[in-house]
Write a structure and sequence with these properties.
By secondary structure, this protein is an alpha/beta fold. It has helices spanning about 25-30, 55-65, 110-120, 160-175, 200-205, 210-225, 235-240, 260-270, 310-315, 390-400, 400-410, 445-450, 470-490; strands spanning about 15-20, 40-50, 70-75, 85-90, 95, 120-125, 125, 140, 145-150, 270-275, 280-285, 285-290, 295-305, 325-335, 350-355, 360-365, 375-385, 425-435, 460. α2 (about 55-65) crosses α13 (about 470-490).
């Protein structure tokens, strides 16, 4: 990847500082190559070991602690727990490094509602308005101007509007079917929609509006990191049909879902060990030996909440997780010492540029009560969704920081010509396996169901087992595994 590859040349302007950040993939590559790692210096016994401190692993720990069981340890590779809900902070604001909001959970998501009640977000059935996204929520830059909302309206014809209306009617029908739920297993059943792509389904249904097709493709890239042509039609429809058409949310914070992780860690910190890369899980009679460089744990039960594809490199006898594809992403946090000049538009929380290869940006300071803060942090998202994930990962790692900085600034310049006068720093996070890709045929495959089955004393719990990389799915998988372990321990 370079700026030239996306048709964008370098521009002159003020110097911009920055670097790649949180570069931990080199450690993960040691697992892939089965490099020799140091032997642990101590041994410990732990009835339950949770591998992975992302939302799934923390949710498993939350569930066990809520049930009064605290004889467990959570092992996290990174310096900070949270996975895709990690966050950063500078002198201006906290900001997300990936997941940046939580849709308001409906009646079919009681686990998320339970957590929201515990965290004080939901009291007596009423949401705390301080945590609901402030207005304006979303805007789209289209044909040289900003419009409110992300469904293209500028220059849309009567035919375009008719297609949007028909599309929305079809989504209402799918929503009413009860098949599209969050978590997905509450309603999902094998469907022919998983055997074709979202793009193919739209052509089959006669949806030809370029604006509608762009919007569907954007939504697939936004939630799955895959184009509409590579996303299962069932997953594409799930994006629209699994939630209420109108809601007062989402919930969001300057640090995104890091706000939730902070509060989970307040409760779980004594059990979470970071910088603890698990490089071997092997049987020892009826127990498991879970090995890191610092310690080896003898465990009766293991909850493997790390991405499932890693099991083949870590768990003794684990096969390769076939069909599990993951989309590579770039997330960049830009520090601005002043906002760009705007004409006839009020800055929103979520800002998207029509036709861009990126997914736009969210504004960390949007939730501030200050009317228009001068300095700010923007979090830009870019899913490498236009080519095979393995090819995109190689391109991702081959590009220099300056290449990504230039590509991001040039992309933003489409809507903000003076962006280079505003930005002082660009920090870039490369995520080779950011989220599971719900490719055609994967969601209802026997392979996915086999990995998701809760059998034995080593249980898999990552959100990739749902085929949908959503907070609710990660929480569900973690809680489900924790309940299975507690049941076997007689602690229901």
């Amino acid at each position: 990847m370079s700026a030239a590859l996306v048709g964008l040349g370098r521009k002159s302007g003020r110097p911009v500082a920055g670097s790649f950040v949180l570069e931990s993939f080199a450690y993960a590559h040691e697992l892939r190559h089965r490099a020799c790692l140091r032997a642990p210096i101590r041994k410990e016994r732990a009835p339950v070991v949770v591998v992975g401190g992302g939302v799934a692993g923390l949710s498993a720990a939350w569930r066990m602690a809520r049930r009064g069981f605290r004889d467990f340890v959570v092992l996290e590779l990174e310096r900070d727990a949270g996975g895709n809900a990690r966050w950063g902070e500078n002198e201006i604001s906290a900001y997300p490094w990936a997941a940046h909001y939580l849709p308001l959970p409906g009646a079919n998501a009681p686990l998320v509602r339970e957590l929201c009640e515990e965290l004080g977000l939901l009291r007596g059935g009423v949401w705390d308005e301080r945590h609901l996204c402030h207005s304006p929520r979303e805007r789209l830059f289209l044909h040289g101007r900003w419009q409110e909302g992300l469904e293209p309206e500028v220059a849309a014809t009567a035919r375009d509007r008719a297609e949007f209306h028909r599309f929305q009617e079809r989504m209402r029908e799918f929503r009413a079917s009860g098949e599209f739920t969050v978590p997905m297993e509450r309603g999902a059943r094998p469907s022919p929609l998983d055997r074709l792509s979202m793009g193919a389904w739209m052509r089959e249904q006669g949806f030809a509006s370029p604006y509608l097709r762009w919007y569907a493709d954007y939504c697939c890239r936004d939630d799955y990191g895959a184009s509409a042509e590579a996303t299962s039609a069932w997953a594409g429809i799930h994006y629209f049909a699994s939630r209420e058409a109108a809601e007062p949310g989402p919930l969001t914070w300057p640090e995104g879902n890091g706000w939730i992780v902070r509060r989970l860690l307040d409760r779980l910190a004594p059990y979470v060990r970071t910088n603890a890369m698990v490089y071997s899980i092997r049987r020892d009679g009826r127990r498991w030996r879970v090995t890191t460089e610092a310690a080896e744990y003898l465990a009766g039960h293991v909850i493997f909440a790390a991405p499932t594809f890693l099991a083949h490199y870590i768990v003794e006898g684990a096969p390769e997780a076939k069909g599990f594809e993951y989309s590579p992403w770039v997330v960049a946090n830009l520090t601005l010492d002043r906002p760009p000049r705007e004409h006839n538009s009020e800055p929103a929380w979520d800002n998207v540029i029509y036709g861009s290869p990126s997914l736009g940006y969210v504004v960390a300071t949007h939730q501030n009560l200050v009317a228009r803060p001068g300095r700010s942090v923007w979090t830009c998202y870019w899913a490498l969704a236009r080519e095979d994930p393995a090819v995109a990962r190689r391109r991702l790692l081959a590009a220099a920081w300056d290449d990504w900085k230039e590509a991001i600034l040039n992309d933003l310049a489409r809507a903000h010509p003076d962006i280079r006068e505003c930005v002082t720093r660009v920090d870039v996070l490369r995520l080779g396996h950011a989220m599971i890709w719900p490719s055609v045929g994967f969601l209802f495959s026997e392979e996915r169901r086999r990995w998701a089955a809760l059998s034995g004393t080593l249980l898999y719990a990552n959100s990739d087992l749902s085929g949908l990389s959503l907070f609710e799915e990660a929480q569900y998988r973690g809680v489900r595994a924790a309940d299975a372990v507690l049941g076997r321990l007689g602690r229901t």
